[in-house]
Amino acid sequence: MSWLNHSLSAGNTHGHGIHSPKLFDFVQYVIDSPYPYYDYRLLERYRQILLADNTILSITDYGTGVSGDRSVKSIAATSLATARQAQLVYRLVDYTHADNILELGTSLALTTAYMSRARKKTHITTVEGCEQIAARANKTLKDLKCDNVSLKIGNINDILEEVVQEMPKIDILYIDANHTSQAMQRYFSLCLPKMHDDTVVIVDDIYWSEDMTYGWRQICEHQSVTTAFNLYHCGWLFLDKHLPKKQYKLRIPHRFY
């Protein structure tokens, strides 16, 4: 029902109704861009490798609270961002020329690889709680030659403050871990001192639960947030003080490369 409500109330992705020139250009070149970057095929071929990997991992999942043995292909089938979603983040990194990215929740590192290959000068710090998933993520990054990624292993709740202190700034914050409104807001607050006007914050799975949706709505009202884009599968937050205090619902184009 939430998807139907979103589809009926969301605007198109061509920027119509968006009066800020900065946001209009952003929608045109990031969300609505039809250009198929050459990395897409390589990365989507690797998705198929993950989806066929029968290796069994012992999982400790701090995000969902579900632990036990699972195959890599099972994790890939349920946890990876879709091609459309991952390519959207690729274009975001390319467009913003982000120097420093913090990703909370590495999983099998396919989205991490998308961000890494979008801009080789970008440095990505990614945090994964489960040691065995982190080991498979490291293989993904090695196979795809993602040399600009530092993978930190540990419970995000325990190590995030130290990780943030080590970063000079945060240009993109990607929150995809510990799916509760309380965790989301805590992560945002801890990272805020290293964020700036041009920072973009991605919050994944904003309709995961009523609690996550509530947390998303609360964080949109934070005094540091100006504009928010609700893309259904995730939300994007902008901190630029020159942007309007406004929320937009947008649909992502159905393109596959």
Q: What is the N-to-C order of secondary-structure elements (H for helix, E for strand)? A: HHHEEHHEHEHEHEHEHEEE
User: Which percent band covers the strand fraction?
Assistant: 15-25%
What is the CATH class? Alpha Beta
Domain count, please report it: 1
Query: Strand arrangement, largest sheet?
Result: 5-4-3-6-7-9-8-10
The geometry reads as globular
The rounded Rg comes to 17 Å
Summarize the model shown.
This protein is of the alpha/beta class.
Descriptive notes:
This protein is an alpha/beta fold and 257 residues long. It has a single domain (2-249), classed as Vaccinia Virus protein VP39 (Rossmann fold, 3-Layer(aba) Sandwich), CATH 3.40.50. 42% of the residues lie in helices and 19% in strands. It has ten helices and ten strands. The protein has helices spanning 2-9, 21-31, 39-51, 72-79, 83-96, 110-118, 131-143, 156-166, 181-191, 210-220, and strands at residues 56-60, 67-71, 100-104, 123-128, 149-153, 172-175, 200-204, 227-230, 234-238, 246-249. The strands form two sheets. An eight-stranded mixed beta sheet has the order 5-4-3-6-7-9-8-10, sandwiched between helices. β8 and β9 form a beta hairpin. α2 (21-31) packs across α5 (83-96) and α9 packs parallel to α10 (210-220). The two termini are 28 Å apart. The mean pLDDT is 90.
